[in-house]
Design goal:
The chain is of the alpha+beta class. Helices cover 46% and strands 18% of the residues.
Length: 149
Protein backbone atom coordinates (compact mmCIF):
# COMPACT_ATOMS: atom_id res chain seq x y z
CA UNK A 1 0.00 0.00 0.00
CA UNK A 2 1.14 3.49 -0.89
CA UNK A 3 2.13 5.76 1.99
CA UNK A 4 0.81 9.18 0.97
CA UNK A 5 2.19 10.71 4.20
CA UNK A 6 5.70 9.87 2.99
CA UNK A 7 4.98 11.71 -0.28
CA UNK A 8 3.92 14.76 1.75
CA UNK A 9 7.46 14.98 3.16
CA UNK A 10 9.02 15.28 -0.33
CA UNK A 11 10.54 18.71 -1.10
CA UNK A 12 8.17 19.09 -4.05
CA UNK A 13 5.14 18.57 -1.79
CA UNK A 14 6.45 21.06 0.75
CA UNK A 15 6.98 23.62 -2.03
CA UNK A 16 3.41 23.05 -3.23
CA UNK A 17 2.04 23.62 0.28
CA UNK A 18 4.15 26.77 0.69
CA UNK A 19 2.54 28.12 -2.48
CA UNK A 20 -0.97 27.43 -1.26
CA UNK A 21 -1.84 24.11 -2.91
CA UNK A 22 -3.62 21.62 -0.67
CA UNK A 23 -1.79 18.31 -0.44
CA UNK A 24 -4.59 16.01 -1.55
CA UNK A 25 -3.99 12.33 -2.24
CA UNK A 26 -4.24 12.81 -6.02
CA UNK A 27 -1.62 15.57 -5.89
CA UNK A 28 0.59 13.54 -3.58
CA UNK A 29 0.45 10.59 -5.98
CA UNK A 30 1.77 12.89 -8.72
CA UNK A 31 4.46 14.22 -6.37
CA UNK A 32 5.54 10.67 -5.60
CA UNK A 33 5.85 9.81 -9.30
CA UNK A 34 7.77 12.98 -10.14
CA UNK A 35 10.06 12.61 -7.12
CA UNK A 36 10.96 8.98 -7.74
CA UNK A 37 11.28 8.71 -11.51
CA UNK A 38 14.80 9.00 -12.89
CA UNK A 39 13.61 10.16 -16.31
CA UNK A 40 11.29 12.86 -17.54
CA UNK A 41 7.75 11.63 -18.19
CA UNK A 42 4.91 12.77 -20.40
CA UNK A 43 1.70 13.96 -18.74
CA UNK A 44 0.03 10.70 -19.70
CA UNK A 45 2.88 8.63 -18.22
CA UNK A 46 2.69 10.65 -15.00
CA UNK A 47 -1.06 10.10 -14.80
CA UNK A 48 -0.76 6.35 -15.44
CA UNK A 49 2.00 5.90 -12.86
CA UNK A 50 0.13 8.01 -10.30
CA UNK A 51 -3.03 5.93 -10.86
CA UNK A 52 -1.06 2.87 -9.77
CA UNK A 53 -0.60 4.64 -6.44
CA UNK A 54 -4.05 6.20 -6.19
CA UNK A 55 -6.52 4.47 -8.49
CA UNK A 56 -9.33 7.09 -8.33
CA UNK A 57 -7.02 9.73 -9.88
CA UNK A 58 -8.70 11.12 -12.96
CA UNK A 59 -6.84 12.19 -16.05
CA UNK A 60 -8.24 15.74 -15.92
CA UNK A 61 -7.17 16.08 -12.27
CA UNK A 62 -3.66 14.90 -13.09
CA UNK A 63 -3.29 17.27 -16.04
CA UNK A 64 -4.76 20.18 -14.08
CA UNK A 65 -2.33 19.48 -11.22
CA UNK A 66 0.62 19.47 -13.62
CA UNK A 67 -0.53 22.79 -15.08
CA UNK A 68 -0.80 24.28 -11.58
CA UNK A 69 2.69 23.04 -10.76
CA UNK A 70 4.02 24.63 -13.96
CA UNK A 71 2.34 27.97 -13.14
CA UNK A 72 3.91 27.88 -9.69
CA UNK A 73 7.36 27.24 -11.17
CA UNK A 74 7.74 23.83 -9.51
CA UNK A 75 7.61 21.75 -12.68
CA UNK A 76 8.64 22.68 -16.19
CA UNK A 77 7.69 21.18 -19.54
CA UNK A 78 10.56 19.95 -21.67
CA UNK A 79 9.73 20.12 -25.37
CA UNK A 80 11.37 17.53 -27.57
CA UNK A 81 11.99 17.96 -31.29
CA UNK A 82 9.26 15.42 -32.05
CA UNK A 83 6.77 17.80 -30.43
CA UNK A 84 6.47 15.52 -27.44
CA UNK A 85 6.24 17.27 -24.10
CA UNK A 86 7.73 15.82 -20.93
CA UNK A 87 7.90 17.26 -17.43
CA UNK A 88 10.76 17.85 -15.05
CA UNK A 89 10.91 19.05 -11.48
CA UNK A 90 12.70 22.39 -11.23
CA UNK A 91 14.97 21.96 -8.24
CA UNK A 92 17.69 24.20 -6.95
CA UNK A 93 16.88 27.13 -9.21
CA UNK A 94 18.41 25.71 -12.37
CA UNK A 95 18.37 22.66 -14.57
CA UNK A 96 20.48 21.55 -17.51
CA UNK A 97 20.03 18.88 -20.17
CA UNK A 98 21.50 17.38 -23.27
CA UNK A 99 18.64 16.23 -25.52
CA UNK A 100 19.08 13.85 -28.47
CA UNK A 101 17.20 15.24 -31.45
CA UNK A 102 16.78 11.78 -32.95
CA UNK A 103 15.60 9.49 -30.14
CA UNK A 104 14.68 12.00 -27.43
CA UNK A 105 17.11 10.67 -24.82
CA UNK A 106 17.57 13.35 -22.19
CA UNK A 107 20.68 13.48 -20.02
CA UNK A 108 20.82 15.79 -17.02
CA UNK A 109 24.04 17.68 -16.42
CA UNK A 110 24.99 17.51 -12.75
CA UNK A 111 26.64 20.93 -12.62
CA UNK A 112 25.93 24.31 -14.15
CA UNK A 113 28.30 24.79 -17.09
CA UNK A 114 27.77 28.55 -17.27
CA UNK A 115 27.89 30.11 -13.77
CA UNK A 116 30.46 32.81 -14.49
CA UNK A 117 28.92 33.79 -17.83
CA UNK A 118 25.41 33.97 -16.40
CA UNK A 119 26.47 35.97 -13.34
CA UNK A 120 28.46 38.43 -15.46
CA UNK A 121 25.59 38.94 -17.94
CA UNK A 122 23.10 39.46 -15.11
CA UNK A 123 25.34 41.96 -13.38
CA UNK A 124 25.89 43.95 -16.58
CA UNK A 125 22.14 44.04 -17.27
CA UNK A 126 21.20 44.82 -13.67
CA UNK A 127 19.11 41.66 -13.65
CA UNK A 128 18.44 39.41 -10.67
CA UNK A 129 18.29 35.80 -11.86
CA UNK A 130 16.14 33.46 -9.80
CA UNK A 131 16.68 30.36 -11.92
CA UNK A 132 17.50 29.11 -15.39
CA UNK A 133 17.24 26.15 -17.71
CA UNK A 134 19.82 25.23 -20.34
CA UNK A 135 19.19 22.61 -23.01
CA UNK A 136 21.80 21.44 -25.47
CA UNK A 137 20.50 19.61 -28.53
CA UNK A 138 22.44 17.08 -30.58
CA UNK A 139 22.88 13.34 -31.08
CA UNK A 140 23.43 10.80 -28.31
CA UNK A 141 26.16 8.16 -28.65
CA UNK A 142 23.74 5.45 -29.85
CA UNK A 143 22.21 7.65 -32.55
CA UNK A 144 25.67 8.72 -33.74
CA UNK A 145 26.63 5.04 -34.12
CA UNK A 146 23.43 4.29 -36.03
CA UNK A 147 24.19 7.11 -38.47
CA UNK A 148 27.74 5.80 -39.00
CA UNK A 149 26.50 2.29 -39.85
Amino acid sequence: MWDYRRAASQPLARAMAERGLRLTRPRLAIVQVLSQCARHLSANEIWQAARELYEPLGRATAFRTLNQMVKLGLVRPLYLKSGEQRYMVVAGGHHHHMVCIRCGTTIELPDCPLPDTVERAAEEAGFQITGHVVEFFGLCRDCQRKLED
